[in-house]
Design goal:
Largest sheet: 7 strands, mixed
Order of helices and strands: HHHEHEEEHEHHEE
Distance between the termini: 17 Å
Strand content: 5-15%
Number of helices: 7
Number of strands: 7
Shape: globular
Structural class: alpha/beta
Strand order of the largest sheet: 4-3-2-1-5-7-6
Length: about 220
C-alpha cells in the first residue's frame, strides 16, 4: 500500500489492524470503555494470529505484548481474550491509558498482577524475553507501547536527554511538549534494545518491522 490512516481513536484502529476490517464492520468505532463508549471487539472475529494458525498450524509463534484495549476488563474471564483470539502469549495492560507508568496492572495470559517497573521498560523487557524464547520458530509480535500516551511524566534516568526537566507537576504543566518528547525518547531507547536483541540473535535482517500510531492524534499509543 502507498497510504495508510489511523482511526481518530485507539480501540477502532487496533481492531482494524487486528482484523483487517473497517469499524462499521467490527462495530468498534470508538474507545472501548471510554466516554460515549464503543462496542468491544467480538471474540469470534478472524484475526491475524488466527489466520497464521490456519496458514501454518503451530508453526509461527504469536504474541501481543503491551496495550490491548479491545474489550472491557470485566468480567475477569475477558482477560483471556487475547489468547482466545489466537495469541500464544499476551502480557500487558488490558485497558486503555495507564493511571501511572510506575504503578499499574499487567495481565499475563489471563492473570492480573500489580507492576511497579516503568511501563515502557517492562513492555520492552517482556518483548525481548519472548523473542529470545520463541526461537527457532518464525514469529509475529504485536508490540503496543502506552507511551507517549498521557499522563505526562519524567521517565527514569538514562532514557531521556533533556537535563532541564524536574518532573514536578508545575514543570510538566509549563513544558508539556518537552515531557512528551521525553516519553518518545524513552520509547525509542527501549525499542532500540529490542532491535539490538534481534541483531545479536541474527534475526534483524529477516524481520519485517511496521511502526504505526493507533490514533490520528499524535498523543497516543505507538506499536510495532
Amino acid at each position: 500500500f502507498t497510504n495508510a490512516w489511523s482511526n481518530p481513536v485507539c480501540s477502532a484502529t487496533r481492531a482494524g489492524i487486528l482484523t483487517g476490517r473497517y469499524s462499521f464492520r467490527t462495530g468498534v468505532g470508538g474507545i472501548v470503555g471510554g466516554t460515549g463508549g464503543s462496542n468491544p471487539l467480538n471474540i469470534n472475529e478472524m484475526t491475524i494470529p488466527r489466520m497464521l494458525n490456519i496458514y501454518k498450524p503451530n508453526g509461527i509463534a504469536k504474541a501481543n505484548i503491551g496495550k490491548w484495549h479491545l474489550q472491557n476488563a470485566m468480567p475477569v474471564s475477558n482477560l483471556t481474550n487475547p489468547n482466545t483470539m489466537g495469541y500464544d502469549h499476551f502480557a500487558g495492560n488490558f485497558i486503555g491509558a495507564l493511571t501511572s507508568y510506575t504503578n499499574w496492572n499487567k495481565v499475563t495470559n489471563g492473570v492480573s498482577a500489580a507492576v511497579t517497573n516503568y511501563a515502557t521498560t517492562e513492555t520492552a523487557n517482556d518483548a525481548i524475553s519472548w523473542v529470545k524464547n520463541s526461537s527457532p520458530k518464525p514469529f509475529f509480535l504485536w508490540l503496543a507501547f502506552n507511551a507517549p500516551h498521557e499522563p505526562l511524566h519524567l521517565p527514569p534516568a538514562g532514557l531521556y536527554s533533556n537535563t532541564t526537566l524536574t518532573g514536578t507537576t508545575q514543570d510538566i504543566n509549563q513544558k508539556p511538549k518537552e515531557y512528551f518528547k521525553a516519553l518518545i525518547e524513552a520509547m525509542d531507547h527501549e525499542i532500540g534494545r529490542l532491535l539490538d536483541t534481534l541483531q545479536v540473535h541474527g534475526q534483524l535482517d529477516s524481520t519485517d518491522i511496521i511502526f504505526i500510531g493507533d490514533n490520528g492524534n499524535t498523543k497516543k499509543t505507538a506499536q510495532i
